[in-house]
Amino acid sequence: MIGALAASPWTIWGIAAAATAGVILRPFAWPEFVWAASGAALLVLLGLLPMPDALGGVMKGGDVYLFLVGMMLLAEVARQEGLFDWLAAEAAVLARGSATRLFTLVFAVGTVVTVFLSNDATAVVLTPAVAAVARAAKAEQPLPYLLICAFIANAASFVLPISNPANLVIYGSHMPPLLAWLPRYALPSLLSIGATYVVLRWTQRAALRQGISSEIERPRLSAGGRMAAAGIAATAAVLLTASAFDLRLGLPTFIAGAATTALVLLRSRSGPMAVLRDVSWGVLPLVAGLFVLVEALERTGATRGLAGLLHDLVQRSATLGAWGAGVALAVGCNLMNNLPAGLLAGRVVEMAQVPEPVRAAVLIGVDLGPNLSVTGSLATILWLTALRREGHHVGAWAFLKLGALVMPPALLLAIAAAALG
Q: CA within 20 to 30 Å of 53's CA: 164, 216, 300, 316, which one?
């Protein structure tokens, strides 16, 4: 097996590339997870990756699976209990008939959700809420508000360690304390969020001239909806506490999500199947497939080679190393998704023993670079899934054209701030 593997690096890269292309393009309108899982299965069937190693790759995503299940349960039970519809009506009332004011309000809420609940939560939890906002405000063009959920999910994802699961992957067991993290990433985060807001609002300026309704019917929030809101707030507190004690986030998130769902269902007429049926379970085999693809790519020697290149570049100039690694990863994430790219990058920077500004630039590239394309991050894929459930569609090419305007200014400003640190 290992001999076949060593002799077939190009076959492995070809299968990984084809699987990634399938996730991006979705031929035959098949779900993303079909292509990722098929690529992983093909590697095993052709003897390019031993089954124990493939299972080991799947198991490396255990914390991510728990995190996602917890968040998806929270989102679904909150949606079914009408929490999103209530929030939507409140936001539309605050906008007072101004499309631009509503845009800014949604952007601010998206920033807070990303910072304290992670970018995946913004995609899963906030997207249906924003769709409800647009309906409540009778916006003829809801897309500008929905796009916020995708872009802010990545732009604000390095304010705190918990803002993006990829942050934990980059630092591994060497996560800096919260009080060391904040000053290191405060300015890069501020520049990233500010640049994303300015450019995204500028690109949507024509649509934001639309009128929206100021006469909004305000629904009553049920007891189940209030309990779901309390569960989301409690989950945020749990994640901050876990981060402060350098604990993995998956299990606490899963427990909080499952407990909230159980408590809400005890007071609701809906049974558990109503919630479980509507959760986007396809995300889990998608992530598992990506982890297996990365496991195979590592066995081609890619990690060692990249670590050597980065080490040599940093030896010549740490600043050049920060810029080169950050920009390269920002682009690379859109070719293979930032979760597997983050796994590779975390091992590369550990092997290369890079200085902190270089590691920070790597993290920014992994977190922010995915704003270029629809498959750059798991959060954006989750956002696409949520969009389809709400009856909206954004094509890969349309997103790429917008991302090519929104992502680069934020990336360059954030890396510049990190490199100076």
A: 164
Residue spans per domain, the chain: 6-164+183-420
Residue pLDDT tens, the chain, 421 long = 444 444 478 898 889 888 878 877 778 878 888 998 999 999 999 989 999 999 998 988 888 889 889 888 887 888 888 887 787 778 888 888 899 999 999 999 899 888 887 888 888 878 988 998 888 888 889 999 999 999 999 999 999 888 887 887 787 666 777 778 889 999 999 999 999 999 999 999 999 988 888 777 777 888 888 998 899 889 888 888 887 777 777 899 899 999 999 988 887 766 777 788 878 788 899 889 988 988 888 888 878 888 888 989 888 998 999 999 999 999 988 887 787 788 788 888 888 888 989 999 999 999 999 999 988 888 898 898 889 888 898 988 999 999 999 999 999 999 999 988 6
Taking the C-alpha atoms of residue 303 and residue 415, their distance in angstroms, rounded to an integer, is: 23
> How many residues are listed for the chain in this entry?
421
Distance CA 42, CA 296 (A): 11
pTM above 0.90, yes or no: no
Distance separating alpha carbons of residues 226 and 262, to the nearest angstrom = 14
CA distances from residue 208 to 19, 61, 98, 205, 390 in whole angstroms, order as listed: 38, 40, 9, 5, 21
Non-local CB neighbours of 195 within 8 Å, separated by 6+ positions: 155, 409, 410, 413
Give the residue among 61, 24, 21, 31 at the shortest CA–CA distance from 289: 61
Residues with Cβ within 8 Å of 109's Cβ and at least 6 positions away in sequence, in order, are 91, 126
Structure token pair of residue 386: 């949520």
Tell me the C-alpha distance between 7 and 5, whole Å: 5
396, 383, 394, 399: which is closest to 127 by C-alpha? 383
* DSSP annotation of 220: P
Q: Would you give the DSSP letter of residue 377?
A: S
HSE-up of residue 202 (Cα within 13 Å, Cβ side) = 10
